[in-house]
Amino acid sequence: MADQLIRATAADGGIRAVGVITTRLTEEARQRHQLSYVATAALGRSMASGLLLASSMKHPESRVNIRIKGDGPLGGLLVDAGLDGTVRGYVEHPDVELPPNAKGKLDVSGAVGQEGYLYVVRDVGYGYPYSSTVELVSGEIGEDVAHYLVSSEQTPSALVVGVFVGAEGVTAAGGLLIQVLPKAAQDEALVEKLASRVESLAGFTPLLQAGKSLGEIFTELLGDMGLEIFPETQMLRFHCGCSFDRVLGALKILGTEEIRDMIAKDNGAEATCHFCNTVYQAEAKHLEDIITEIESAESCG
């Protein structure tokens, strides 16, 4: 099934629901960064979370950054997701592996750590970005992002994200975000009913592995609550906007002296994009052109 996002409402607009399938883009991230099993699960959950958060933004250029810094061996991770359906990300120590937890599942909490912080930056596409910081509550990603939504945005939210990765790679990944908006928050019976159904889920990836579509999952959860599924399906993909020209532009910041040192010692320069792990090679000629541009700009100034 293709990576995709769908939106829905229920309870006369009092409930907002978004679902994503991110299997292919999570597998691409695993391959690009040569991620361990537990690192794949942590980054995959975070990328799904980022896409779910970005889905509520309005401006086409809007993006969400999620940075998690815990006290676990994974070190930390960073995800950048956009309203346009693109996402990228990386983990600090991609080769970290841990034994399964007490439930026999990948120990994401142990890898991330239960002490630390979740940082969320919302770039609405104009003006200054909005940033929030909350303490980690479990290191399980989904619970931490849901805690952020309640603490920083005062929106009661249930967020379920999951990644199933085996010897053949990622075979199921995605997530579900359900939010109770102010117009329905006063209906305690509705809130309790919704919370009970979400808690009864045995996870998100088992539903995908059972062949359930996002629409079918929504119907099971919200079908008797006036569910309305929007007809548009948005395609999702792993995408990084890095390029060789951007790398050359970044090298200008180093200044002519350090660039000349690179030419003398290495006859060039090598740069790796943290987000997509693409390696760029700049030859001596490219560096000499940068020096010329810097000196020309200084003389004109």
Give the biggest beta sheet. 6 strands, antiparallel
Helix content: 25-40%
Output the structural class: alpha+beta
CATH topology of the largest domain: Hsp33 domain
Give average pLDDT, whole number.
92
Q: In DSSP terms, counting alpha (H) and pi (I) runs of 4 or more, how many helices?
A: 11
Distance between the termini: 56 Å
CATH architecture of the largest domain: 3-Layer(bab) Sandwich
Number of domains: 2
Strand tally is 14
Round the Cα radius of gyration to an integer and report it. Answer: 22 Å
Short description:
With 301 residues, this protein is α+β, with helices and mostly antiparallel strands.
Task: Describe the protein's architecture and organization.
The protein is of the alpha+beta class and about 300 residues long. The chain folds into two domains: about 5-240, 3-Layer(bab) Sandwich (Hsp33 domain), CATH 3.55.30; about 245-300, CBS domain Like, CATH 3.90.1280.10. It has helices at about 25-35, 35-55, 110, 140-155, 180-185, 190-200, 205-210, 215-220, 245-250, 255-265, 285-300, and strands spanning about 5-10, 15-20, 65-70, 75-80, 85-90, 115-125, 130-135, 155-165, 170-180, 230, 235, 235-240, 270, 280-285. The strands form three sheets. Strands 1, 2, 8, 9, 10 and 11 form a six-stranded antiparallel β-sheet that branches. The chain has a six-stranded mixed β-sheet with strand order 7-6-3-4-5-12, covered by helices on one side. Strands 13-14 form a two-stranded antiparallel ribbon. The chain is elongated.
